[in-house]
Structure formats: C-alpha cells, structure tokens
Design a protein that fits this description.
Helices cover 39% and strands 24% of the residues. The chain has one domain: Ribokinase (UDP-N-acetylmuramoyl-L-alanine:D-glutamate ligase, 3-Layer(aba) Sandwich). The longest helix has 16 residues. The strands form 2 sheets. A 9-stranded mixed β-sheet has the order 5-4-1-8-9-10-11-12-13, sandwiched between helices. It has a 4-stranded mixed β-sheet with strand order 3-2-6-7. Helix 1 crosses helix 8. By secondary structure, the protein is of the alpha/beta class.
C-alpha cells in the first residue's frame, strides 16, 4: 500500500461551467462544462498524484453519482479502496460568471451513512500501513461526531502521522482527543473554533495553544490574501501570499495539504514543505473550476520562491 492514505467520507462529483451572466428567473446558458471527482480527500489524492506520488484513497461510494465518481477515479493512478453505502454520492456545482469574475459554488450536504457502513472503513484503516493518514472534508450525515477523533487514535496506534483538514463539531471533537500531527485550518475555521474574531497575533496565540496542549504538533494556518502561518515545535513562520491571477478557489486548501504531505513524505523539513504548500495552493487558484493545480504552475511558483530566498530548489515534482 502507498505510504500516504487520503480519506474521503463525503466525496462529490464536481460539475463546473462558465456563463456570461447570472440572472434570476432566466434560463442560464453555460459553456465549457467540466466534470471531476471531488471532495476533500479525493482532491488531496488527485493533487498528490499530479505531483508524482501514488497515494491510496479510501472513500464512500453509492448511487449513480457514486458509480460516476468511481469511473473517474479509475482513470487515475490512485490506489483505490471504495466502500459501498446505500445513499447517493453528492453532486456539487460551481459556475463562473464571466462578466464579474465571480464564482458561485453550490455544495449539497450529501448522503446519510450508517455506523455499520463506516465500520468497514475503520477496519480498513486498522489494516493500513500508511505513514500518513489524511482526513479531509466534511463528515457525511449520520457519521458520529467523533469519527475523525477515532481515526486519529487508530493512526497513533499504527504509528502513522494524522493530518486533519475539516471544520465544525467533527473538528472540535478531534481536537479534544488528538493526536493530530498537522492541522490545516483557514483563518475563518480557526475563528469559529476560538469563538471570536482573531487578529494575526491572536491567531498565532490560538495556534500555539493547540500545540502546547499536546493535541496538535503543527498548525498550518491559511490567511487568504495575507499568506499563511506555520506554528509548532518552536517554529512560528509566516509566508506572504503569492499573488496570481486567480480563477477559482476550488481545491486550494486541499492542494496545500497534499503538497505539504508530499514534501514531508520525501523527507524534507517542515518549513520547506510549508513553503512548497503555499506555492501549490496558489497554483490551484490559477486554474478554473475544479481542475486543481497544474504541476507546471507549481514548479514555476516554487522556483520563483527559491530564487527570492536565494536557495536551490529541494523538492522535486514528479519524484517521490
């Protein structure tokens, strides 16, 4: 099995398109239709593959959309492990309004899963020998709120590093119990967790609180147009945002997580992995719809970052 396992409990088939203008009560004609497998863990696995890794992906599959999702994924080199559910995998939609440049995203809740259905995935996780386990995305309806917390405990028992990118009650529960090697919140998610608005100084203190509690080893906090912060193990590093011609926000966070784990799995240090992740997240914003990042864009941005730092590029895309 791959050394990296991504988990997608609530995957999607992502449908994206463009239109000149969105008008209420009008039939909206669209162009440039695109269809991709999506959802947090799926996107992470797709980006890892694009960078040169061959990850494993454990995901729920059900209904006609689930069959379509599986067909899309079979066209990749991802090591697939699907788990059948009775409900239908969700369809998510994003529409780019060309006149304004605004992107409209419609994301349904998705199917309800039973604990019996999830039990098969837990059994699989217990048999896995992956060095990194990445839990990314929302929990499906019906999943116990401690689902990710239980996964973190299994990863610890297996000696794996658990990476978490989620929000809401599932996040709160996971951070009560840990252990989490890497937690990747956005500033909005960290503010919800803290229950208040946070200045950058406050955000650093909140991230440090999570680290000093012993639950989280590293926090990689994305700040949107203000860049990103890495906190943990005596490190507090801020990387400014890379300004690009953004076409879509879809998958930027997933690309960030995938890139960071990709670099760490190659044996690079946490700081270098963090900077590479910032470059990859920016590259994802350069692509339209649900295309995620282009490896050539990642390489271009990373080489530019290395040039600015007057250092040789350490991370090799296409090599794992």
């Amino acid at each position: 099995m791959s050394s990296i396992l991504a988990i997608a409990l609530n995957p999607t088939v992502d449908v994206s398109c463009d239109t000149a203008r969105i008008q209420p009560m009008h039939k909206i004609r669209t162009t440039n239709p695109r269809h991709h497998p999506g959802g947090g863990g799926v996107n992470v696995a797709r980006v890892l593959t694009a960078l040169g890794e061959r990850p494993a992906l454990a995901y729920c599959q059900g209904g006609a959309a689930g069959s379509l999702l599986h067909d899309f994924l079979k066209q990749t080199s991802i090591d697939l492990h699907s788990f059948q559910i009775a409900g239908d995998v969700r369809l998510a939609f994003s529409v780019l309004e060309e006149t304004s440049g605004f992107e409209y995203r419609f994301v349904p809740e998705g199917p309800t899963v039973s604990e019996a259905e999830l039990a098969h995935l837990f059994d699989f996780l217990k048999r896995s020998n992956a060095g990194y386990v990445i839990a990314s995305g929302s929990l499906p309806l019906g999943a116990p709120v401690d689902t990710y917390a239980r996964m973190a405990e299994i990863a610890r028992e297996k000696g794996a590093r658990f990476v978490l990118d989620t929000s809401g009650p599932a996040l709160t529960e996971a951070l009560k119990r840990g252990p989490v090697f890497l937690f990747k919140p956005s500033i909005g998610e960290l503010q919800k967790l803290a229950g208040r608005e946070l200045s950058e100084k406050d955000a650093i203190e909140e991230a440090d609180r999570l680290v000093t509690s012993g639950i989280v080893e590293f926090v990689a906090l994305t700040l949107g147009t203000k860049g990103a912060l890495l906190v943990g193990n005596g490190i507090c590093e801020r990387v400014p945002a890379i300004h690009v011609a953004a076409k879509s926000a879809v998958g930027a966070g997933d690309s960030f997580v995938a890139a960071m784990v990709f670099a760490l799995n190659q044996g690079h240090g946490i700081k270098e992995a963090f900077r590479f992740a910032v470059c990859t997240g920016a590259a994802a914003a350069m692509t339209s719809g649900t295309n995620l990042c282009n490896p050539a864009d990642v390489e271009m941005l990373y080489l530019a970052d290395c040039k600015t730092r007057k250092t040789l590029p350490a991370i090799k895309i296409g090599a794992s």
